[in-house]
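Entry for the shared binder. Reason: the reviewer on the internal report wants the predicted structure included alongside the sequence.
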Amino acid sequence: MAETGKTYKFLNPVGTQEPVDTFPLAPRLSSFDGKTIHFSICGEPDITIPQAGQAGFPH
């Protein structure tokens, strides 16, 4: 038999998430002329990076 008169408290494991500030993305560049582009590749050992002059790589 369950004991009567006892009160149990439980916490909700989902919790609450505070709202965060969002910022819009930067506008796209009209061209890559005069720009230096750096790639930071983490965790992808077999990745192909386009070279300037390849088909589909804008100038």
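Summary line for the report: The mean pLDDT is 78.
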